[in-house]
Amino acid sequence: METLFDKIGGEAKVMELVTQFYDLIESLPQGAAIVNLHRQGHGLAHVRPAQFDFLCGFFGGRRYYAEQHGHMNLREIHAFVEIATVDAENWLTVMDMALTDTKVGEPMKSQIMTTFRRAAMMLVNRPDG
Q: 89-123: string of b/e by CB count within 10 Å (b at 16+)?
């Protein structure tokens, strides 16, 4: 059975998506707080390869992240980070742009964004304001 990973273009497309996403995160106003959150954690140098590893498995490809860390639990991965609704919304906005820029078409883009929205909102652990 063909996975979403296969449908979007495999590792090459995941790498393109991660690269575009973090290029946008590092250059758009919506990314400023997210960059700051990463600086509080493992830093920006760590995030691109970790995101690639995670998304490969998330989309149904090889589970590089789980192989290295023993799990793919988003809450555990982000436990040390205070995430407000506005942070989650900004992440989603930029990811939507990156999916468009990398030409991930419908209905896959909508499917991915629906799943990302659930995951992002699950990670909100701090009130806005």
A: bbbbebbbbbbeebebeeeebeebbeebbebbeeb
Nearest by Cα to 53 from 30, 34, 77, 36:
77
- Residues of the chain falling short of pLDDT 50: none
57 contacts: CB under 8 Å, gap ≥ 6: 63, 64, 65, 66, 72
Tokens 């992440």 -> residue: 91
User: Which fold, 8-122?
Assistant: Globin-like (1.10.490)
Token pair in block for residue 30? 């919506």
Q: Would you give the distance in Å from CA 63 to the centre of its chain?
A: 15
Number of CB atoms found within 10 A of residue 84's CB: 16
Q: What residue spans define the domains of the chain?
A: 8-122
Residue 75 is predicted with a pLDDT of 83
- pLDDT tens profile 58-72: 999 999 999 999 988
Provide the H-helix boundaries in the chain.
4-8, 10-25, 32-40, 44-58, 64-69, 74-77, 85-101, 108-122
